[in-house]
Design brief:
4-stranded antiparallel beta sheet, 4 helices
Length: about 90
């Protein structure tokens, strides 16, 4: 299954962002349980972060990203890329 990366940048204040973090974490746990091998984290020096996950297609990846609570509630701007692994 292809890997995808959502690179995101925060666009709301921290209190607004933080209220959706628990829902985001629950969403990621659900993706992991469904076999998408999701990993998420934030940049230490900047506002934003990254979500790495597997999906069957770009279309499925777009649906997955659109359902992320941080996206649904307008907390982040993002770019979605297919990531092709060269070496494991």
């Amino acid at each position: 299954m292809p890997w995808f990366v959502k690179i995101e940048e925060g666009k709301v204040d921290k209190p607004t962002f933080d209220q959706y973090v628990p829902a985001h974490k629950a969403y990621i746990k659900d993706l992991i349980a469904k076999g998408h091998k999701a990993r998420t984290g934030y940049w230490a020096e900047h506002r934003g972060g990254m979500l790495l996950f597997e999906a069957a297609s770009k279309e499925e990846a777009e649906v997955i990203v659109a359902d992320d609570p941080l996206v649904k509630h307008g907390c982040v701007n993002y770019q979605l890329y297919e990531w092709r692994i060269v070496m494991e």
